[in-house]
Amino acid sequence: MFTGLVEEVGVLASITGNEQASRLVIRAQRVLEGVQLGDSIAVNGICLTVTSFSDRHFSVDVMPETMKKTSLSHLRPGQRVNLERAMRLGDRFGGHIVSGHVDGTGTIVSRQPHANAVMFRIEAEAELLKYVIQQGSICVDGISLTVVDVADTSFSVSIIPHTLAETSLQDRRVGDQVNLETDVIGKYVERLVSYRSRQSGAGGNQIDAKGSKISLAFLQENGFV
Q1: Of 50, 18, 23, nearest to 34 (Cα)?
Q2: Is the pTM of this model over 0.70?
């Protein structure tokens, strides 16, 4: 479990393998404090397992499913990546609930100055956008951000100077791909409502066997999803 607060920006030292499976070696420092084999570290928002490490590097193996769903296949040696260690019980929870299980990728379609901030608009598939709500939370390349607005094919986020300076977003340009993880709560709500609807027969507004009147339509109408 992560919070979407980037601890350190590391550098990809090497990548071996192919678009099916790869091994990444990442140069870092802070996230290596107290590291052990098998620990989880989010790399651009992707929960990966430490398979080896030294005092300045750690390596991770990436399986085919992860390569297919994320932007890792576009990484090149020398590029900077956002890093966050798995949270510990008792840590401050400054972001939102982030699992490190990326739902898919989006494409930056605009980057515009906005007063003291920078506004990014990110294009994404409808399957992801249905979980994105105005003023809700989304994880972009491992960064917990607040959604400014949502359109039919895209959404926007406003990046304050501190976040821009302390993450790899400062390197991102129009056309770049970013990893997206939508709010996990919305996905669980949708699954639960869908399951109950199937159990009670056709029609999401029917009362289920336990007498619940909650449906996906009800939650949408009242701003929950």
Answers
A1: 50
A2: yes
H-assigned helices in 55-147: 64-69, 126-129
pLDDT digits (tens, 9 = 90+) for 42-74: 999 999 999 999 999 999 999 999 999 999 989
Instruction: Report d(CA 36, CA 58) in Å as an integer.
Output: 10
Q: Which residues contact 28 (CB under 8 A, 6 or more apart)?
A: 8, 10, 11, 56, 57, 58, 83
3-state SS assignment for residue 163: helix
In 3D space, the residue among 172, 212, 178 whose CA is nearest the CA of residue 192 turns out to be: 212
CA 65 – CA 70 distance, rounded (Å): 9
Percent of the chain that is helix, strand, coil (3-state, to 5)? 20, 35, 40
Q: Are 75 and 12 in contact (CB under 8 A)?
A: yes
Contact 86, 25 (CB under 8 A): no
Distance CA 172, CA 223 (A): 32
What distance in Å separates the CA atoms of residue 205 and residue 106, rounded to the nearest whole number?
33
Find the helix or strand (DSSP H, E) in which 220 lies.
helix 216-221
Residue 171 contacts residue 82 (beta carbons within 8 Å): no
Task: Choose among 177, 42, 162: nearest CA to 104.
Answer: 177
User: pLDDT tens across 163-186, in order?
Assistant: 999 999 999 999 999 999 998 888
Sign of CA dihedral 88, 10, 33, 162: negative
Instruction: Provide the token pair at 78.
Output: 């020398």
